[in-house]
């Protein structure tokens, strides 16, 4: 959730900026200042996301400790919370000063963050709602980072222009649909992983959760399949994303069924129900690494191979 959206978002920022640059030097203002602004803003947004994630993780320790009055954890979490929080705030301020249109993203990220923090406060940080909010926020970082490329560009006369107005959504609204496809791929995979992991750990052995996880993965595969019709989407990254969703669907159905329900049968018949679980939490996590890498590669390739039209408007 930390690095995958950053890598895809950076690929989109570079790709879109390159396309804007191809409008022609005669139509552009001084490009050096634009590239410096883009680089600084992209770095600021990246730092804000990483430090913000660490801040949120620390809040997950600090807030329950405050409710329970655990002074030891409060002291232990206090310093990192202050450090990560300060770095996050400074990075956000820098990014908004460089490209004020980024403030629009507060409309999206603030409610999702509130939902996640509320779930921590009520003592259910591992709930499905919290997991979905966190993973969707992570996927949306792709789009936020991508706007640091177009948002750094000077106004041009060839149909590509810029808005720097606060709370202006024009830069966001005019991002290509292929970019939103990569956001959807990552969001679907990550939310599906939340469900799958629950069927393997906290909701282990629950048939309703298992069925719900499989049903979600079926929908995720169908949506991913439908994205092939999205404008100038390249076929190769779509095939990779499709393979990821097929594999995710298969493991969401087969692994819990094999690990949990077959053990119940063994316990009922007395034929080996005492054996230790094959899929430990560590093994469940490590098995996801190839899928995370693949969906990240699919997003990066989509950005690199994108050569469609892009149009931004002055607000």
From TrEMBL:
* Membrane-spanning residues: 35-56, 77-98, 104-121, 179-197, 209-229, 291-314
Keywords in UniProt for this one? Membrane, Transmembrane, Transmembrane helix
What Pfam family is a match for this entry?
YwiC
What protein name is recorded for this chain? YwiC-like protein
Species of the source:
Corynebacterium provencense
